[in-house]
Amino acid sequence: MRTHEALLRHFRDLRDGTYGHASSREDKERLFTETVALMDAVARQTLDEVNAELLLGTGQVEATGLTRSQDGGLMAVWSLTWPEQRRAGVEPVALVAHYGRGFHHPHLRGGTVGEWPLNVFNASDAADQLPTLRAIAAADVHNLVFQADYRLIPAVAEEAPPEGR
Fold first, then answer.
1. CA 165 – CA 152 distance, rounded (Å)
2. Whether the Cβ atoms of residue 98 and residue 73 lie closer than 8 Å to each other
3. Which site in 25, 117, 136, 147 is 20 to 30 Å from 130, CA atoms measured?
4. Cα-Cα end-to-end distance for the chain
5. Contact, 61 vs 18, CB < 8 A?
6. How far, in Å, CA of 124 to CA of 129, rounded?
7. What are phi and psi of 52, to 5 degrees?
């Protein structure tokens, strides 16, 4: 898969009015239900890694499963809590898959993501940042499309949409 294939699929969905191949809200919700099931193991692995490496196994991973959000959409939350976090009264680490009522298609978010630490002191440290930089760049591109629309991305705007759209 190309590095940015997921973003291109996302922007094609915007262009085509679909999520995957689903076009009705009902079909999109059914597909999102399957997506949440597929994401469960990956989200748990991510939080288990944080727990093992950073929290020395003191944390607890929990998942809500698929639930209705306050706006009538769907969401699933995987969270990681630990004693120090609870004592400090701060939110847990969270991975959130959500399909808001007014959304065209689902999204992922974190609980507090906004800043990322940068501690690079040699070429190996810099190379290790590639997945993080890719995630940050993809998030920025997504947010710019959210502010404008998919036509901001030539790779999608220049493609012919599927017949019937």
1. 19
2. yes
3. 147
4. 26
5. no
6. 9
7. -70, -45
Q: Which pair of structure tokens corresponds to residue 88? A: 């400090």
| pLDDT tens digits for range 50-91 | 999 989 999 999 999 999 999 999 999 999 999 999 989 999
Residue burial 141-158, b: 16+ Cβ < 10 Å; e: rest: bbeebeeeebeebeebee
In this structure, the strands spanning 67-68 and 107-110 are unpaired
pTM of the shown model? 0.81
d(CA 77, CA 95): 6
What span, in angstroms and rounded, lies between the C-alpha atoms of 86 and 155? 45
> Which two three-digit tokens encode residue 163?
């017949």
Q: In angstroms, rounded to a whole number, what is the distance separating the alpha carbons of residues 152 and 147? A: 10
How many other CB atoms sit within 10 Å of the CB of residue 126?
A: 12
User: What's the token pair of residue 25?
Assistant: 């809200």
* Contact in structure between 27 and 18 (CB atoms under 8 Å): no
Q: Could you tell me the two tokens for 77? A: 């939350």
Which residues have C-beta within 8 Å of that of residue 96, sequence separation ≥ 6? 75, 76, 77, 78, 108, 109, 110, 111
